[in-house]
């Protein structure tokens, strides 16, 4: 039965069977999905575990173990209606007790989502299939955070009464997801097999294997040589066009809510504490050049102060100014920083990560600022040292970083709120804090908008941060792979391979 | 033989304070490095102070450094190297899981490089200043200067991507579930390119050292005497020249063995070989103090044992040493 014809390949109905091999960057740290923040576990958990609700590839909240949910009028009580007949991989029925245990544990043992659950006052289970979460105050971003990370429901019958940090099931997980755990050969691969009793239906694949290949060049060769079907450890951006031209390979590029930006040190004594200096830097940096030279056009120049991937919270009238070297020079003259004999006004320290494309980006910034007489000292550090110097010791003038801005604009609080954990600039604006607080207490998106617009206007005025470019995600896979989450928005959560099938 | 026994006993005893001193120095150096494991575990995106504090408390990182050191030594003497902060598994378990893969890789290549480097040197030295000798000398310089990770990638491009003779990455063919002998064969098949890389990189050292050593020994007066006395050249070479010329190579081989557990990190990364080198680099970047200390502890013991074995072997090869 021919269903549709697409890019020259005739596809039939999804085929059952096959092993799906993913070239994967690193080893997970454990299979306790809620304890520690683990980027490498995050790609595997969605196939073993389920959440109450989850995020699809467009960052919309979709049902997972909770079939539906209601929010009370005052925005303080969330009631989740669970699916019936769901079983853990070991055959024990899943109930609301598992949900309550999981969330109580995340809060009491300070799991990775602890911050996001701060507003939870009490969790109750009126019956086996209903979970009620009462909040201390209305909190609109709650669903987004619940669907994001560190909130996988864990089996109470295996964890209750044990130390969840050393429970043997951290090495041999039991979940409710589409695939069951088979083996983990440390540093080499993780193997999962089909869960025939998955609540959404039987997955197509027999097996999913995460083959750990830390070097992205090797990962690309292994992918091209047929040892992997999906290259999750993408090579450097200059190699993407090569892959795009390779027969049998598909490359899909999707926008992401992550962006590159500069954080300024606003503390007294720093040149960057002078607004005119920050405004001059804003005018002197060529964001298009960064996109072209650093991101090889995989990405977009930033235009405003929030990610366009979550458009409802983007103020249409708050725009970054176009590059203007002349005006930047004027502002610096006005600020009283004259050029010396060598054409240098002053020197700033720029700190950035050792990884990936950061050095190129820093080089462009350095070159741009040289044109207005600002000399830039480049400081490249591996992440642990960067955190020490920038976040803790505040020993920097400006720093490059990126970061996920979703799933809700309330996340701006982390980066620009007075008490934000990533607000290391020394920025404190009560108007920003107030707008963020108010915006988080209303459920209606239309009514929330003005508060975030206001925050963005204030950021454009104060310039504690300077957005540079939007990150894109690059998905690289063989053309016989179908049903990846990027192709099934609204149906499956990110990273869930329940609908994946192979036409090979 | 009592001199020999005394020699070894003295050597073994000297290892203990050495290892303790190394652990002590490592402990402070590691803690001096900027960065905090609890901060790294809780992530850059959402680092919550409460989460960081809870983790610091759990791992005793909130105690004074001296107290931490005391606890570490107390446990280490009982054979407990502690828990990894990142993986929350005993350090010993983590090391055990990885050490086999690494030793398979490094020991195989060390032995192959030692044998082939020495043989090539012996062979080429017979044709001193000939074309073969020149070619091998130049080649050994080229290989010596070559970064291992680069050679590894080139070998992948040639043998995996173009010729399709060998697999690109990892230790197993994950599409098949092999058992028993076929699983072992599969591992050897995956082992070929990483071992080839490491062997090629190490051959030049043995080759050059043995070659110059052979030249030197050949010029010694007792060799001249034997030649003059009419002994067969081949016999002189095999029995007297090579045996003496091999000594420096044995030293290098011994030291290589000492670094066998972590020395191949770059090659392990390129070939996605699940070994100790990668475990160590990960631990460095994540500031997993306990794991790092554990690996360094094992490394220190290995190096000490390797040096000891080298000395013993030396003493056997050259009796003068043990009576000094």
Sequence-ordered SSE layout with sheet pairings:
The complex is a heterodimer of chains A (504) and B (324).
Chain A: E1 2-6, E2 9-12, E3 19-24, H1 39-42, H2 45-48, E4 53-55, E5 61-63, E6 66-71, E7 77-82, H3 96-108, E8 120-127, E9 130-135, H4 142-146, H5 156-159, E10 179-185, E11 189-194, E12 207-212, H6 216-224, E13 230-231, H7 240-245, E14 249-264, H8 275-284, H9 287-294, E15 300-301, H10 325-334, E16 346-353, H11 358-370, E17 374-381, H12 383-392, E18 398-404, H13 412-416, H14 430-440, H15 445-462, E19 465-478, E20 481-482, E21 501-502
Helix pairs in contact in A: 8-10, 9-11, 14-15
Chain B: H1 2-32, H2 37-42, H3 49-58, H4 65-77, H5 91-126, H6 131-145, H7 148-162, H8 180-218, H9 221-229, H10 233-245, H11 247-258, H12 265-270, H13 276-286, H14 289-317
Helix pairs in contact in B: 1-14, 5-8, 5-11, 5-14, 6-8, 7-8, 8-10, 8-11, 11-14, 13-14
Could you give the count of β-strands of chain A?
A: 21
Individual helix count of chain A: 15
| Beta strand count of chain B | 0
Shape of chain A: globular
The main β sheet of chain A shows up as: 11 strands, mixed
CATH fold title of the domain at 98-276 and 299-317 in chain B:
MetI-like fold
Largest sheet of chain B: none
| Cα gyration radius of chain B (Å) | 24 Å
Number of helices of chain B: 14
Kindly state the mean pLDDT of chain A as a whole number? Answer: 92
Separation of termini of chain B?
Answer: 14 Å
What share of the residues of chain A lie within helices?
A: 25-40%
- CATH architecture type of the domain at 98-276 and 299-317 in chain B: Orthogonal Bundle
- Unreliable spans of chain A are 1-8
The CATH first-level class of the domain at 98-276 and 299-317 in chain B comes to Mainly Alpha
């Amino acid at each position: 039965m021919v269903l549709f014809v697409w890019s020259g390949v005739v596809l039939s109905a999804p085929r059952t069977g096959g092993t799906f091999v993913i070239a994967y960057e690193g080893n997970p740290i454990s299979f306790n999905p809620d304890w520690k923040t683990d980027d490498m576990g995050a790609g595997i958990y969605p196939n073993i575990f389920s959440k109450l609700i989850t995020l699809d590839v467009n960052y919309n909240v979709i049902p997972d173990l909770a079939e539906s949910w209601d929010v009370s009028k005052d925005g303080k009580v969330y009631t989740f209606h669970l699916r019936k007949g769901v079983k853990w991989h070991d055959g024990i029925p899943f109930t609301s007790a598992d949900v309550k245990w999981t969330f109580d544990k995340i809060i009491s043992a300070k799991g990775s989502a602890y911050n996001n659950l701060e507003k939870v006052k009490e969790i109750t289970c009126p019956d086996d299939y209903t979970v009620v979460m009462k909040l201390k105050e209305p909190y609109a971003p709650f669903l987004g955070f619940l669907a994001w990370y560190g909130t996988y429901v864990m089996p109470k019958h295996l964890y209750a009464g044990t130390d969840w940090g050393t429970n043997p099931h951290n090495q041999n997980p039991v979940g409710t997801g589409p695939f069951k755990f088979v083996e983990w050969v440390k540093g080499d691969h993780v193997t999962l097999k089909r869960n025939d009793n998955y609540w959404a239906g039987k997955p197509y694949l027999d097996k999913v294997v995460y083959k750990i290949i830390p070097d992205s060049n090797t990962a690309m060769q292994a992918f091209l040589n047929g040892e992997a079907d999906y290259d999750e450890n993408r090579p450097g951006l200059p190699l993407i066009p090569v892959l795009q031209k390779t027969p049998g390979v598909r490359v899909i590029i999707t926008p992401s809510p992550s962006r590159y930006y500069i954080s300024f040190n606003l503390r007294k004594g720093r040149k960057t504490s002078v607004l005119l200096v920050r405004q001059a830097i804003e005018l002197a940096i060529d964001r298009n050049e960064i996109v072209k030279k650093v991101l090889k056009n995989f990405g977009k120049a930033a235009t405003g102060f929030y990610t366009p991937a979550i458009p409802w919270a983007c103020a249409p009238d708050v725009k970054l100014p176009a590059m203007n070297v002349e005006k930047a020079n004027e502002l610096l003259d006005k600020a009283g920083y004259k050029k010396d004999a060598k054409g240098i006004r002053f020197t700033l320290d720029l700190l950035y990560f050792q990884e990936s494309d950061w050095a190129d980006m820093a080089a462009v910034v350095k070159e741009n600022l040289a044109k207005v007489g600002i000399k830039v000292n480049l400081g490249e550090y591996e992440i642990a040292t960067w955190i020490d110097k920038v976040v803790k010791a505040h020993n920097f003038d400006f720093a490059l970083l990126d970061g996920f801005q979703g799933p809700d604009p309330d996340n701006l609080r982390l980066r620009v709120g007075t008490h934000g954990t990533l607000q290391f600039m020394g920025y404190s604006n009560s108007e920003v804090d107030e707008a963020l607080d108010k915006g988080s207490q209303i459920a209606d998106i239309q009514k929330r908008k003005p508060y975030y617009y206001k925050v963005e206007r204030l950021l454009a005025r104060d310039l504690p941060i300077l957005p540079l470019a939007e990150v894109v995600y690059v998905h690289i896979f063989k053309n016989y792979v179908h049903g990846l989450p990027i192709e099934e928005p609204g149906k499956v959560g990110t990273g869930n391979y329940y609908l994946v099938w192979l036409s090979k | 033989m009592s001199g020999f026994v005394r020699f070894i006993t003295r050597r073994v005893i000297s290892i203990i304070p050495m290892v303790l001193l190394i652990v002590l120095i490592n402990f402070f150096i590691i803690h001096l490095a900027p960065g905090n494991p609890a901060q790294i575990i809780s992530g850059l995106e959402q680092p919550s102070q409460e989460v960081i504090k809870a983790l610091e408390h759990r791992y005793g990182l909130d105690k004074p450094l001296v107290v931490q050191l005391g606890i570490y030594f107390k446990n280490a003497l009982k054979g407990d190297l502690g828990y990894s902060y990142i993986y929350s598994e005993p350090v010993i378990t983590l090391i055990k899981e990885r050490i086999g893969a690494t030793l398979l890789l490094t020991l195989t290549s060390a032995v192959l490089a030692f044998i082939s480097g020495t043989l090539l040197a012996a062979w080429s030295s017979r044709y001193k200043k000939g074309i073969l000798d020149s070619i091998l000398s130049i080649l050994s310089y080229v290989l010596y200067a070559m970064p291992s990770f680069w050679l590894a990638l080139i070998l992948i491009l040639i043998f995996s991507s173009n010729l399709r003779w060998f697999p690109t990455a990892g230790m197993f063919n994950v599409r098949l579930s092999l058992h028993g002998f076929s699983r072992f064969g599969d591992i050897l098949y995956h082992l070929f390119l990483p071992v080839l890389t490491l062997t090629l990189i190490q051959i030049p050292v043995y080759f050059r050292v043995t070659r110059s050593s052979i030249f030197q020994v050949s010029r010694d007066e007792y060799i001249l005497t034997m030649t003059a006395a009419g002994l067969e050249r081949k016999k002189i070479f095999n029995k007297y020249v090579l045996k003496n010329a091999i000594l420096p190579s044995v030293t290098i081989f011994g030291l290589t063995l000492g670094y066998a557990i972590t020395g191949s990190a770059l090659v392990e990364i390129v070939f996605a070989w699940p070994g100790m080198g990668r475990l160590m680099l990960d631990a460095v970047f994540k500031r997993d103090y306990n794991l790092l200390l554990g690996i360094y502890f094992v490394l220190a013991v290995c190096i000490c044992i390797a040096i000891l074995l080298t000395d013993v072997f030396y003493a056997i090869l050259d009796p003068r040493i043990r009576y000094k």
